[in-house]
Structures are given as structure tokens and as C-alpha cells.
Amino acid sequence: MAAVLVSLLAGPITTVDARPDAPCAAAGPGRPAAPARWAPTGNPQPSVVPGRMRSDCGTIPSGFTKEQADRAEVMEAALAAGSADGRPRASAAADCRVYWPAPYEVCGAIREKYDELGGPNGFLLYPTSDELTNPDGQGKRSVFQNGPIYWSPAGGAHPVVNHFFAAWQRNGWEAGPLGYPTSDEIVNPDAVGRRQYFQGGTIYWHLNEAYYVTGAIRDKWGETGWEGGPLGYPAGDEILLPDGRGRMSRFEHGVVHWSPDTGAHPVTGAVLDQWSRAGYEASAYGYPTEDPVTHPGGVLEQQFQHDRLYSSGVTVPVAPGVSLSLGVPSAGPLRPAVVSDGVVLSGPGFDARFQRLAEDGSFEVSLVRLDPSAPTSVDVLLGAPADYTLRATAHRVELVDPAGAVVAGVGLPLGFDSTGAAVPVRASLDGNRLRLHLGDAAAYPIAFPAVAARGDALDQWWSTGVQQRSVCEGEPYDCYRVRNARGPAFNLSKAAFPEATETDDNRIDAARHCIWNGLMTEGANRGFAERMAAAHERDGQANPDWTRNAQLMDEYNNRTGVQVGLRNEGAPAAIESTCLRYGREARIVPEPDAIDLTNPYGTDLIALRHP
Questions:
Q1: Partner residues linked to 491 by β-bridges
Q2: Cα–Cα distances in angstroms (integers) from residue 79 to residues 89, 347, 380, 601, in the given order
Q3: DSSP letter at 120?
Q4: If DSSP codes are grouped into helix, strand and coil, which group holds residue 531?
Q5: In angstroms, rounded to a whole number, what is the distance separating the alpha carbons of residues 46 and 44?
Q6: What pLDDT digit, counting tens, does each position of 541-558 carry?
Q7: What is 469-512 written as a DSSP string?
């Protein structure tokens, strides 16, 4: 880093033999001398002699005037006076040296460090000040073109430059929490970043950003593996928290919070998303009191002062690096376990299940009351970046991006007992906490399922689409039995048509509608499938890409799916294979009005385009 600055900032550096018997005329007026590395002036003049000064014979490096160069030469002569061999040397009394053309003395341990780093030929370039005493009356500093060297009795002499200097400066220099430097810059094990030690902490540099870490937070970061661990590099200086007691440091992939009561602990991933949206340590959960624990299936568990937070490990991706995550706070420990396509968190008398439904990122969240001992209310925490907004509607909680677009959401649950009867459920959103009040029934278990999905799929699911939800509320038994039929329909059709880059208005879309309606017909009945399909199309009209031809295509293929379901009762695999075959043979009909849309036989599918 510093070596690059040398080539950018250093002016032409030349030396000439300035002995009295070496006439300057030999170089010729205005004739540039040959480039050379810096060296002391040979036989410097003890006073300014026009035409006989080093400045008259050579090029003065950038940043200095002839007057400064001549004064520097006279200072060199004064320091060299009395030398037995007639060559310049450091003053025995002050151990100082002058580096022509800079008219400043560099002394003692600072001079030794400067010479060790190459003097003017090193990355610091030339002095721009004499040695200065720091405000504490103890330390010293000398300033150079590319930064200072600081010295203290305890830390010795070390340069502090570029981003390290900026980070040290904004934190009060040696009077701040870092104190004096105790090392030069050190290259980190990744051969990319650098670090520098100070009395009160360490500054880390990476990708043109430098921040300090200190104390218990630095120790905890070290336990996790420093910059090579899961937290990565520091992304901010340590800060005092609003309560005036705790402190925190932000890292690339998480934070470390400390308080005198709880110690230092990292918080990362989805737990951080959920805890931060709740208000960090000022939330109802308080400070972390333990490090996070990762369970199979991606479940994160972490104990806080007032609750234990569990993140399900299942997220809805909405943008690069951005997702909607869900977790469950609990007063006591839960038992995480991996299940098909998801995880379950088990507590006293209840399960919280998070299972992926389709490859579009949708998943079902089911809260199940297993017996009367189960709690009557359960909280779900939603996590997302701070610049995204959470808002509640009558049927779902929506995640809105900074531009105002709905990019994801969670449907409010519907309740079903073991007989399929509806069970009431009430929901309220407080910040990012979705509190669900679960009704009771005589027939256990009681399931309260909902769907979380991306914005472009929200209206395609029974718990988030307004019209489909209405059908479910009126026919809970059939809805519960076939509520997830769209998942296999989406996944199987997508796998069967890998050439399709989109999932609308083509053969993949045709096969999906056929499988979905076939499975609903087989699992429930024809009437329910037809009513749910019609509600699905009404929900789809809210999509800005909706067209009448696309709706006509879907309605035709829905009818085929119903017929396939009736012909293959009790054989869902046959429904799926038949619809996929129909999809491969689908007719391309850009204008569906041109065909018989009543589709009385249900033996084919249509698509507006291919693939």
C-alpha cells in the first residue's frame, strides 16, 4: 500500500557532488542531473554560497523550494562540524539528522525508525517538520510527506499512515482509546489485509477501510478466528451503546456486543436480522448472554437476557444478499430437528415447522398445538435489512423494499383441527414480532399453517392470495388436505422443462396448472378444485403482467387437470406423469379465443408460446 504512494508522490530525486572543487558549471545551467537515490550531501556548505550549493547543481525534489534546500544544506554542515572524517553524521548530543532538501531535524528513535524504513527513499519520503512534543508532554512525533512517525516511552517509534492514520485520528490520536502505536503495519495471514497494534487496541485495514477493535470484543473476535473466522473483518469502530454501559463492534458478517453484565458475544446471520429489527439490546430480548449455536438444518440458536431466539434456517430470497427470515423466541429451550425439506422446533406441547414448498423459495410455516398443554400464543420474529419495511394487511405481513415494491410476505395462518374443522386464530404485528393467538378445539393436534413467499408468488398460494384464502376459510377440511399441491406441481414442471427460462404462458406453466388441479381433484373433490382454480385466477389479476389470453390459457389447462385427476383417482403419480406428457405435447395457441375453451374432454394442454 505504502510502496504505491512512493511512485505517485515522489518527485525526481538526484544527488550531486557538492565539493568546492567540483564546479557546478559542469552540469550546465538548467541541465538535469542523472537520477539517483537520495544520499547525504557531500561536503555541505556551512553558509549559502551562490553557484556552489547542491541546489545549483541538481534537481530539487517536488515539494521543496531552493531556499529550503539551501537551508537544509547549511543545517547538514552544522551537524557534521567536528566530524573526524569530514562526512556528515548525526549530532552526538541530539542524535539528529537532516535529509536534504528538507530543512528539518529528525532525531533519536524516530530517526532510527525512519532510516530503518529507507529514509527519503522509503515510503514516508521527506520530513516536513522538526521533531514535535505531543500534547501529553511524553511522546514525540515527526511528520513526513506520507505520514508521521510517533514515539512513546512504552511503545517505541512507529509510522502511522494512510487509512490507519485516518482511523487513529478520528478516535483521538494518542489521547483516545487506542493510545500510542506499538507496532508497524503487519500483513495479515490472508495476504490482503493489514493490521497495526496500539496500546489500547488494534486497527485492521481491508479494502480501503480501517477500523479498530479492542478489549473483550477483540478477544471474542479472536476466539472466532479473527478476520479468517465467520465474522470477517471489522466494518466499524467500537461504539458506546445508547444505554451508556454496553459496547459493540460491527464486522463484515455480524456484530459483537458487550456489556459488563453479559460479556462479549457475536450475533450473526438470521438471528442478527431478527434481533436487530426488534431493536438490538434495547429490545425485549436484551443483550446476548451466550455465543450462537448452529444446529443441523441451518437452525441458529442464541440465548439473550430475556429470551432464547431460534432462527429456522429457512429464508425467502428477495434480492442479492437480501432475504426474509423467520424465527421463534422462546422462554425455554426448544428441540431442533431436521425433517423433509425443512426443520421443526419442538417445545412443550407444540411444534413450529418450517418446510420448503417449491423451488420458487416458498415455504410453509406451521404452528401445531399437540395437546392442551401447548401455549395459546406463539411469537414469530421476522428478519430483513433495516431499509425494508414490514407492514400488515388483513391477510398477510408484507416486506416492502426501499422503492415501495412488495418483495415478500407471510400469510396469516389458518387453523384446522384433526377433523379438518376450522379453528380461530388472531394475529398482531408489533415491529417485527408477529404474535399469533391460537384457538382451541377438542380434536388434537391443531395445525395453524401459513405460507411465506416472494412477492411475485404471494398471490399464488392459498394463505396469501385473498381470493384463495376465502375459499379455504369456507371449505377448511378440503383446503387443509390439499393446501400444498402447488409445491410438487411447480417443482415437477420446472424439472421437466429445463429449457424454459420463465414459468408463465408456456409449457412449464401448462403442466404446472394441470398437476395442481389434478392433485386437488384427487385429494379433495372436483368442486373444490374448480373453485380454488377460479379464485387463483382472480388473485392473478392483481399481477401487473396479467393478460386476458394468459388467463384463458390457465382456465383451459385447469379443466384438463380436473379431468386428469378424475381419471386417476388414488394415483397421484399417474396424474403427474400424464400432465407432464400433455405438457410436452402442448399445442401453441397464441390466441386462445380461436379454440373451444370449454375443453370438454380434458386430454391436452395449450400454451401461448414456447419454451
A1: none
A2: 7, 82, 76, 109
A3: G
A4: helix
A5: 6
A6: 988 889 999 999 999 999
A7: HHHHHHSHHHHHHHTTTHHHHHHHHHHH-TT-S-SSSSHHHHHH
* 405-421 average pLDDT score: 95
The x, y and z cell numbers of residue 127, run together, are 520530513
Listed in order, strand segments (DSSP E) in 297-442 are 299-303, 308-319, 322-330, 335-339, 342-347, 350-356, 363-369, 377-383, 389-392, 396-400, 406-411, 415-416, 422-423, 425-430, 433-438
CA 329 to CA 367: how far, in whole Å? 13
Strands 350-356, 342-347: pairing is antiparallel
Which amino acid belongs to residue 58? Answer: G
Work out the pLDDT band at 503, boundaries 50, 70, 90. Answer: confident
Q: How far is CA 192 from CA 7, 195, 227, 255, 526, in A?
A: 20, 10, 11, 22, 64
Phi, psi of 539 (to 5 degrees): -60, -40
Three cell numbers, residue 152:
512513546
What is the reported pLDDT for 25? Answer: 39
Helices (H) then strands (E): counts for the chain: 14, 33
pLDDT band at 92 (very low <50, low <70, confident <90, very high): very low
- In terms of DSSP bridges, do strands 606-607 and 587-588 run parallel, antiparallel, or are they unpaired? parallel
Q: Which three cell numbers stand for residue 418?
A: 384433526
Average pLDDT of the chain is: 91
CA distance 56 to 42: 14
The three-state DSSP-derived secondary structure of 12-79 is CCCCCCCCCCCCHHHCCCCCCCCCCCCCCCCCCCCCCCCCCCHHHHCCCCCCCCHHHHHHHHHHHHHH
Length, in residues, of the chain:
611
What are the φ and ψ backbone dihedral angles of 499, each rounded to 5 degrees? -75, -15
Q: Angle 548-567/507-523 helices, nearest 10 degrees?
A: 40
